[in-house]
Design a protein that fits this description.
Number of helices: 6
Order of helices and strands: HHHHHH
Number of strands: 0
Shape: globular
Largest sheet: none
Distance between the termini: 45 Å
Amino acid sequence: MTDRWQRCVSAWNTSRSAALLRDSQFLRFLLSGGINTLFGYVVYAVGILAGAPIWLALLGGMVTGSVFNFFTTGGYAFRQLSPKLYPRFLACYLLLYGVNLALIEWLSAWISNTLLIQALLLVPLALLSYFMMARLVFATHA
């Protein structure tokens, strides 16, 4: 079994997919962001389905995911896990929360399903998040 596992790991390490993930910060961000987004969305959906107000469900997803997301985004995507970066990470996270909440409120005038609104906002907010994290938190000159 160990030999088989080593062959699989070796094959992965030499594969084109592994090389892309190893060399592309943006692709690593998308992968970790997908996991982070799924987690946050599930917490948000559970809150909404449990009857929580939108702001509380959204805040619950943001708070419970912030530490986990710092490790996946900082450690995996940007390869930087310095604790001194966490305050900037948290500040960007809170700004994203505010933008997200404002967009949900604004879109609620046209779309009544808040779960659908949040699903529609996933991609634009992920792109905004990448820009903020790459430029404001994990930039090599930061």
